[in-house]
């Protein structure tokens, strides 16, 4: 889709302007790469012309934060070929990517996505910018789903501790250490959606609803499940380490465990069913 699915800019209540789609210009891309050069090791550095080529192929890959017309942060969230995805997942540094590896979004398709960067200028870190950009990314993914465009899996190369924390806080799990000293992390978005929807369905079963005491114990034992049942409640700001977060997501094993418990409750005939320790 040559002109992108999302285009325009919006000013957040904090005074940051967020750009997406064709509102991101080659000048913005050249400026955001200066953040890369200041923060990331040389092994990750890419020439502006290459990144501009990525953007021409798919204008929706960048979310850019401005403050007083200065680029202070950005996200790169790029749908890529399965071959390129597997190379990154295997620990290879991403500088091999060309515009041919970047895919255009098309309705009815599923995509493997490389979450290559979430970068904030050092002078603007711990001010909530990453959280604002992640919220816009969340809305982008929702808009893709509304157009029958689906994200099946996401890989990230966490080369800083803050990047690793953000990935963990958003449901990513460690795959392997890379061949350049970072951590490769991944989330199977399609699988997680199926698990959460299955858990919600189990929770709607009357046999489950009748056992309120058991459900209360389930929430107590698995507190990480509750946010999935209240998707409009989002945690903003920073955690104890100052890391910005959007709506919390959690590892699949916790969701699976709680879903299994819900199914067990629904199938039990005894009124005195007790949640095991």
Summed up, the helix count is 10
Helix content: 25-40%
Q: Which structural class fits the helix and strand makeup?
A: alpha+beta
CATH fold-level name of the largest domain: Aminopeptidase
CATH class wording of the largest domain:
Alpha Beta
Query: Order of SSEs, N→C?
Result: EEHHEEHEHEHEEHHHHH
- Overall spatial form: globular
Strand order of the largest sheet: 1-2-3-4-5-6-8-7
The parts where pLDDT drops under 50 for at least 5 residues are 227-256, 265-277
CATH superfamily grouping of the largest domain: Gcn5-related N-acetyltransferase (GNAT)
Residue-averaged pLDDT: 75
Question: What is the total number of structural domains?
Answer: 2
Any guess at the CATH architecture of the largest domain?
Answer: 3-Layer(aba) Sandwich
The gyration radius over C-alpha positions equals 20 Å
Give me the count of strands: 8
- Cα(first) to Cα(last) distance is 52 Å
By oligomeric state, this entry counts as single chain
Task: Tell me about this structure.
- With 277 residues, the protein is of the alpha+beta class.
- It folds into 2 domains: 180 residues, 3-Layer(aba) Sandwich (Aminopeptidase); 76 residues, no CATH class.
- Helices cover 39% and strands 20% of the residues.
- The chain is built from 10 helices and 8 strands.
- The protein has an 8-stranded mixed beta sheet with strand order 1-2-3-4-5-6-8-7.
- The longest helix has 18 residues.
- It is globular, with a radius of gyration of 20 Å.
- The C terminus is likely disordered.
